[in-house]
Amino acid sequence: MTAAAASPSPLARAARLLRDNPVIALLALLLLLVGVLEILRPGIVNERWIGNTIRFAIPLAMLAACQTLTMLTGGIDLSAGSVATVAAFVAATQAPLIGPEAAMLVALGPALLVGLANGVGVGLCRVHPLIMTLATGLIAVGALQVYQRGVIATGSAVPPLLGWLGTGRSWGVPHALVLFVPFAALLLWAERRTGFGRLLYAVGANERAARLAGVRVWGVHLALYALSGLIAGLAGLLYLGVIRAPSLSLAEPLLLPSVAAAVIGGTSIFGGRGGYAGTIVGALILTVLGTLLTMLQMPEGGRRILFGLIILVVTAAYLRLTDRG
Amino acid sequence: MGAMREAAATRQDGPEAAPAPAGPPILDAAGVSRRFGAVVALRDASLRVARGEVVALMGANGAGKSTFVKILTGALKPDTGRIRLAGREVRLTSPAAARRAGLVPVYQEPALIPDLDVGDNLRLTRTPSGPFLHWAAELGLGAVRLDARAGALPLATLRVLDLARALAAEPDLLVLDEMTAALPTDLVDRVLSVVRAQADAGRAVIYISHRFAEIARLCDRATILRDGTTVGDLPIAPGVEEQAVELMLGGRLSAPAALATRASPAASGPPRLRVRNLAAAPKLAGLSFDLRPGEVLGVVALEGQGQDELFEILGGLRRPEAGRIEVDGRPRAFRHPADAIAAGLALVPGDRADALLSVRSVRENLALPALARPRAWGPIAMRREAEAVSRTIARLQIDTRAQGEARRLSGGNQQKVTIGRWLTGAPPRIFLLLDPTRGIDVRTKRQIYALVRDLASEGVAVLFYTSELPEVPQTCDRVIVLFGGRVVDALPAAEADEPRLMRAAYGLTEGEGGADRAREAAP
């Protein structure tokens, strides 16, 4: 039982470096994909392409934040896609009625409400997060359809701020970064350096142990799912700015990729391990992969098969790399 | 230890129980090594077992016993080394392969799947139920129902059923890893005699235990591991325990006598914790005692006499049906562990797995209670936390070479982490330790005794349940014995010799004034 012997092989040293900093492996994979893209289509990787990739990756990365945070406690938030859609739709339809700023604030109301409902269900009623969030997601979309009938005559408008964030660019830098950089920085800081962040890991690693240490686990769940709802709402607003056309299934296609981004990024679905840094890279990888597969001009079916296989291979390779012994 | 020497003497059947195996070797492992990342768990382990032998594998926690056993039973692959079974070199690639080769283990933790009934568990391993029931009866479990859900059975029964299942597979080499740790004495006797009979019938057994007395009764030889290397092979003979301890510890330990020094005499003053008529069916039937500041109150009981429920109630994990709990004279009722903690009570549970964040770092484990309240949800004072954590690590001498993930620590260090988390902030006013030394090496045990005495001298009141009777006079000021959910005896620890405690634990003291003394425990 002494520390490692004098001269580990370079391979072992590399493996250890990767295990301690899993994000390095993910970044390498991202660069590899970009390289393949550039080889297939020389010249495609330019400032404009990078800007576009970032623009589409950011709403995905924000939605994947919901999955990362809930997965750290061993949960999941399948209502995130619906919540994002609801927030976007409410904001777009309320903007002509009460003005864009008020509409954006109002839109976060249902997002918070669904999040609180999830928190009560998971934390107090001990419903499994998968079931709870699946159900509230369905309910939210149903409620949105009812709401749509009421506002059908008012029309819709994308608040200008969201358009500026979603599609705008200054000196080649997408404006979405104005929202996302502080968001990501806050999350990365909070998950490591705040008591709440630590408790997410603790609850996911061993809920019974957390309880024994005096943690009221229901309180953590309530706050977590409410936060997840808010983040999903924000992601929905931003995505509205990217797509610029509200619909009843706006962010739905982002839901499963958001889970995939968190998993590829190294967050364990069993809880206790992972973090947002990997998720951000995971979201970028998925976005670049999407471009790559589109470029191959494969039929839609083949593209999906390949997409699924790549997610499997990347995740398996990643687990092998980081969890040996 | 006197009884043990006798037992050792009677086991000397042959003219010389020499280190050289008597029969043909069934297992011959040599040069086995295994590394986990930066930690070398096994360096150069070897072990020979012959037919007809029971060989003890001994070593302090972290010496590599568990790793070695996992390699021998196919659950882990070695980095180097060779393993021969009945003369042929084998590669045990999986537990199933080891099983086919005639090597069957019983591990420390129950192996039956809790949500299946016993019969389904047997079908999983294709164990015939006839032999299984035969062995279960032989081991002292009269009526085993195959349709009983495994999770509903008591821990001791589960351990014995694991053994019965292993025996039903008719193994050539049986590997028992801390098999008796959770068993009451009568079951231990049955287990030992059945295991001995296996060896006498020409099979072989590897036996791992922290209890010298059992090893002396059962084993022919002891192979000693230290720091991942086989350092000795001793025939069991009178006085061998001193040699074994020396080999295991490598002369790093102070003499046992130094331990018995007691810092504080029995504490005085009004009780810090007063428990009256605590009841919770079916296990607790009106239990009363007092605990004073600076006092270590030992709790002794056989399996299932209400001690688990008592600690769970005091720790806020369970609510009593009747009775009073007073802390410093104030009545208290705990609805959640957080309530108990706020009242100054901290619980270290009997099972480390219940308290450990196994995939998180030592630091996060130690800092957990400090972050539990919503008031602490904000930014962490990282430097202050680092200082507090390193103070705890230093005080408890936690080995931090594998501190990235608590599950990579040895069992003893894991236990230190679960205890140390309550000392990282202000210490609790009442410390509830439920069998804190179960399955832990001698060195860590002694450190824990010293820590408990140390805390008591600082005025902490300690309630200390232990399944190892010799710990009582070493560590406690007073001791209460539980039987059937009541206190049946209470005495100063100095008078607590093992026979008396054992008699009381079996409920045999009632007529002799034990009950009167029990009433004195709670005047």
Give the spatial strand order of the biggest sheet of chain A: 1-2
Helix content of chain B: 25-40%
What is the C-alpha radius of gyration of chain A, as a whole number of Å?
21 Å
Which spans of chain A have pLDDT < 50 for at least 5 consecutive residues? 1-6
Distance between the termini of chain B: 36 Å
| Beta-strand percent range of chain B | 15-25%
CATH topology of chain A: ABC transporter involved in vitamin B12 uptake, BtuC
Q: Can you give a write-up of this model?
A:
The complex is a heterodimer of chains A (325) and B (523). Chain A has one domain (45-314): ABC transporter involved in vitamin B12 uptake, BtuC (Orthogonal Bundle), CATH 1.10.3470. Helices cover 76% and strands 1% of the residues of chain A. Chain A has helices spanning 10-20, 22-40, 47-72, 80-98, 100-124, 129-151, 160-167, 176-193, 195-205, 207-212, 217-243, 255-264, 276-295, 300-322; strands spanning 169-170, 173-174. A two-stranded antiparallel sheet of chain A has the order 1-2. In chain A, a hairpin with a 2-residue loop joins strand 1 (169-170) and strand 2. The longest helix of chain A has 27 residues, at 217-243. Mean pLDDT of chain A is 89; it is low at 1-6. In chain B, the strands form 4 sheets. Chain B has a 6-stranded mixed beta sheet, sandwiched between helices. A 6-stranded mixed beta sheet of chain B has the order 16-17-18-13-19-20, with helices on both faces. A 4-stranded antiparallel beta sheet of chain B has the order 2-1-4-5, with helices on one face. Chain B contains 18 helices and 20 strands. Residues 1-21, 252-261 and 510-516 of chain B have low confidence and may be disordered. Chain B folds into 3 domains: 2-102 and 171-248, P-loop containing nucleotide triphosphate hydrolases (Rossmann fold, 3-Layer(aba) Sandwich), CATH 3.40.50.300; 259-355 and 426-521, Rossmann fold (3-Layer(aba) Sandwich); 358-420, no CATH class. In chain B, helix 1 packs parallel to helix 8 (212-218) and helix 5 (129-138) crosses helix 6. The radius of gyration of chain B is 24 Å and the shape is globular. The interface between A and B is large, with 33 and 47 residues.
